[in-house]
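name: query_chain
kind: protein
chains: 1
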Amino acid sequence: MAIRLVISDFDRTFTDGTLDVDAGLADAIRIIGNKGIAFSIVSGRDYNFLLDFCGRLGGVADSFVAENGCIGHFNGKKYVIGRSPFRETLLGRLDRLKIPYGQGEVIIAVDASREEGLGQALSGLGGAFSVIRNVDSLMVLPRGVSKSSGAAWLSRMHRVSSGETAAIGDAENDIHLRDACGLLGAVSNAIPELKAAADYVCERGYGKGLQEFIEYIDAAHVDAGR
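structure:
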């Protein structure tokens, strides 16, 4: 089964710290697009950031999932695809415990050093949330929501199967993409755990690695599926 959709993580995969997109990467995405292979992004970034960023790319990426699987964008429309009714309860508990946090429309982020306090705040909420580590942050998400569920949503919107989907990333939360694709890639700057789970480990890092992955798919006419 041939690849029909490529999904990339954003930070440290699609871009580096400069947030620049190399011309060679943009060209590679356009080349596979002309061959009927769509390209999407799944990220922990907030919706408005990705909407603005992708809007400046001239159609290179016109669908994405933000907040680690919580909010999607497809065909110019915003979708809330994950939400918890206990979010305000959790925020109130974090405030009372004086635990600093960042928040998006759905997601909540706590520094990894506050893991014990976060566990206390989550106690008794009936497993309504899951916690995923991403570098030095703990991402608090509605139960069942992850980059994997976000990638699966993108596949459904693009009307392709998981076996026709390829995904690539660099960090802990990208390992979940394994369950949503037939071909998993890791850029060279990825953590060892992701490289161990990947089908293809790039020789290059960041956007150059993503470009390598796309060119591999294009040149090899890769058949997905495990």
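note: The first helix runs from residue 23 to 34.
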